[in-house]
Automatic annotation (TrEMBL):
InterPro entries: GH43_arabinanases, Glyco_hydro_43, Glyco_hydro_43_endo_a_Ara-ase, Glyco_hydro_beta-prop_sf. GO terms for biological process: arabinan catabolic process; xylan catabolic process. This is Arabinan endo-1,5-alpha-L-arabinosidase. CDD domains: GH43_AnAbnA-like (cd18831). It comes from Aspergillus ibericus CBS 121593.
Length: 320
């Protein structure tokens, strides 16, 4: 356990302690991890930004992780520049099929789209790319069509996505969760005070609430351009009894009005944690998984490490 000085400074009198990431062996370099366990044999599949969604497998969450290859080795069918450099995989298991949502984008450009590949085994070369799910952005929109995250609430699928501009959006999906239902996207989280962005949404239902996890701050390029302390990536959360809005933080501040409570920030040798997801593991319970910089390894994007911790929900909010 180490004490997060930035959190202590922000909340006088309240000591926040963060656990260190669990150990990882084998291929532990990862950005924006997506995690799924195969139902047939319990093998873990861990997906990552870069290439055409590279993935690794392991029999244990601790590793050793072994790199396998890419989800869509030829690149996405989506006709945008960046279709061979896919981002931010989001994994789901729906009625016998594994879904891998991904984003097509180019860093610094608003031309972006969300795609879907499916497989019944997750093996190499077993994935079928279906191209765009109907969520796209171009110059002038209030969002970027990146960082997909599917949630099913009361029988309806919704896609959370976005970053920069007006931060995090949501759109209703069809009954199979494969395409948008055609209605307009709406904002669910926005930080008016930020010079960076909220992105990488991951929504998870626990008890009576939907928890909206997101990454806030400067994500990348720390080796050449490190932000002021506290402005680097961190993992935040808001919650609501509905999946579609009214998210608030621990202090009751609306997530659309710059609210958000920290779940994990830089501490000790951990720097800029983000790109997170939540997984309901049969052995460890609900875990938060993420990437982070280990300051003893290096600050480059290519140095980002895989981390995870069991979530403690005891006060109705996730903490690790
Ligand atoms: C909003 O932005 C400010 C300034 O960058 C930052 O300090 C704060 O933590 C952000 N809040 C959330 C909820 O991300």
């Amino acid at each position: 356990m180490r004490y997060a000085l930035t959190a202590l400074a922000a909340l006088p009198g309240l000591a926040l302690a963060y656990s260190n990431p669990e150990s990882c062996s084998g291929t532990c370099v990862v950005s924006d991890p997506g995690l799924m366990r195969r139902v047939s044999d319990g093998k873990y599949f861990r997906f990552s930004t870069g290439g055409e969604i590279t993935f690794a497998t392991s029999d244990s969450l601790f590793g050793p992780w072994t790199g396998v290859g890419s989800v869509v080795p030829g690149g996405s069918r989506i006709d945008l520049s960046g279709n061979t450099d896919l981002w931010a995989p989001d994994l789901h298991y729906i009625e016998g099929t594994y879904y891998c949502f991904y984003a097509v984008s180019t860093f610094g450009s608003q031309s972006s789209a969300i795609g879907l590949a499916t497989s019944t085994t997750m093996e190499l070369n077993s994935w079928t790319d279906h191209g765009s799910i109907g969520v796209a952005s171009s110059s002038g929109k209030l969002y970027n069509a990146i960082d997909p995250n599917l949630i099913k609430a009361d029988g309806t699928f919704y896609m959370n996505f976005g970053s920069f501009y007006d931060d995090i959006y949501q759109v209703k999906m069809n009954s199979a969760g494969t395409k948008t239902a055609g209605s307009a996207a709406y904002n669910i989280a926005y930080n008016a005070t930020s010079t960076h962005s909220e992105e990488g949404a991951y929504m998870y239902q626990y008890g009576n609430y939907y928890y909206l996890f997101f990454s806030s701050g400067a994500c990348c390029g720390y080796d050449t351009d490190r932000p002021a302390a506290g402005e680097e990536y961190k993992i935040m959360v808001c919650r609501s009894t509905e999946a579609t809005g009214n998210f608030v933080d621990k202090n009751g501040v609306a997530c659309r009005e710059s609210g958000g409570s920290p779940v994990l920030e830089s501490h000790g040798t951990v720097y800029g944690p983000g790109g997170q997801g939540v997984y309901d593991d049969p052995k460890y319970g609900t875990i938060l998984y993420y990437h982070y910089i280990n300051t003893e390894i290096g600050y480059a994007d290519g140095d980002k490490q895989f981390g995870w911790n069991v979530i403690d929900w005891s006060d109705g909010w996730p903490s690790i």
